[in-house]
Write a structure and sequence with these properties.
heterodimer, A: Yope Regulator, Chain: A, 4 helices, 6 strands, 24% strand, B: 155 residues, alpha+beta, Yope Regulator, Chain: A
Chain lengths: 164, 155
């Protein structure tokens, strides 16, 4: 697929994304980065910590990415945080946290390839529901791990007590 | 099996045939396809499956090693570094079974996952697993330290 076709397909995916967000009555800002990637940024309320979400459509990579960065740094208890992230990610079939332990950044990510296809708005909504559900259920848990107020056994107990 | 799920599996098998990977086992009762791929070093096993209830497709590759108890922390650190640089898929470490699997997913609710889509995904997944499985194995076996593993993973 040449670059022009990739760009056209990416625009179709971005249109589907904006339609999905409109249908969900979300207020978002639109932007195009220097790289040519198209983004939508918005915030959502949750049970505890607020969610900031960025959705990026990359024509060159042919990937739609949903990111939600947790609003705290996890620079202490690095070993426990890394293992807790593994425990959490292993429970999911889609998405997961990336842990940049040098910077302490925790970033939830779902990526959707669209080579040879155009992602529909309902699939985008499903990915967004998964993002919100996953982050909402685990951001406070990771916050407690980062602060050192619970250990891995505590993580396991809290994960078992929450629905998946 | 619903029609949408059947179409996904049909297209996946078409992609496998197009890639020349004809030795696979399709298990319709599990909505799954199982196959192996020879990489540069460690042979790779893949398991592709659909979850009809959520209309999601997953491609997994389980690494053929058990992580040593005293390597668990450094391997989890390496997994974090590797996942941070992937723009598709991720490695999952089950800290209880001490096993690692690569995972990449797709939604098919109103999305046609075509053979071309699956060819791209298959090529990507095979390259990623092939690139990192030996680094993880060497770290697990104590042949290299975490700094060296990270250097190799980032190159």
């Amino acid at each position: 697929m040449d670059n022009k076709q990739k760009e056209l397909n990416a625009k179709r995916v971005y249109t589907a994304l904006c339609t999905a967000l409109d249908e969900l009555h979300l207020h978002y800002s639109k932007n195009t980065l220097e790289s040519g990637s198209m983004v939508c940024d918005f915030k959502m309320e949750s049970d505890d910590l607020p969610l900031s979400i960025r959705i990026l459509v990359s024509p060159s990579a042919e990937i739609l990415s949903i990111y939600s960065s947790l609003p705290f740094a996890a620079k202490k208890n690095v070993a426990t945080v890394a293992l807790a992230v593994c425990m959490i990610n292993d429970r999911w079939t889609v998405g997961g946290y990336d842990y940049n332990y040098a910077e302490g950044e925790l970033l939830y990510r779902i990526n959707m390839l669209f080579h040879g296809t155009t992602i529909g708005k309902e699939s985008i909504k499903e990915a967004l529901y998964a993002t919100v559900s996953h982050v909402d259920k685990t951001n406070d848990l990771l916050y407690d791990v980062a602060r050192g107020t619970i250990d891995l056994e505590g993580v396991m107990n809290r994960l078992e007590n929450k629905e998946d | 099996m619903d029609l949408a799920t059947k179409k996904v599996l049909d297209n996946f098998c078409t992609a496998m045939n197009n890639c020349g990977w004809r030795k696979y086992e399709r298990r319709d009762e599990d909505c799954a396809v199982v196959f192996g791929v020879n990489g540069d070093d460690i042979p790779m096993q893949f398991y592709a499956t659909c979850y009809p209830k959520t209309q999601t497709f997953n491609l997994y590759s389980g690494l053929p090693m058990t992580i040593n108890e005293d390597s668990l922390f450094v391997v989890s650190g390496l997994i974090c570094v590797i996942n941070h640089r992937l723009n598709l898929g991720r490695f999952d470490l089950n800290i209880f079974k001490r096993r690692i699997a690569f995972r990449v997913a797709a939604f098919y609710k109103d999305t046609d996952l075509t053979p071309a889509f699956f060819e791209e995904m298959l090529g990507f997944a095979a390259n990623v697993v092939d690139k990192f499985n030996d680094i993880i194995a060497d770290l697990n076996d104590g042949k290299i330290d975490l700094d060296t593993a990270i250097e190799r993973a980032m190159s």
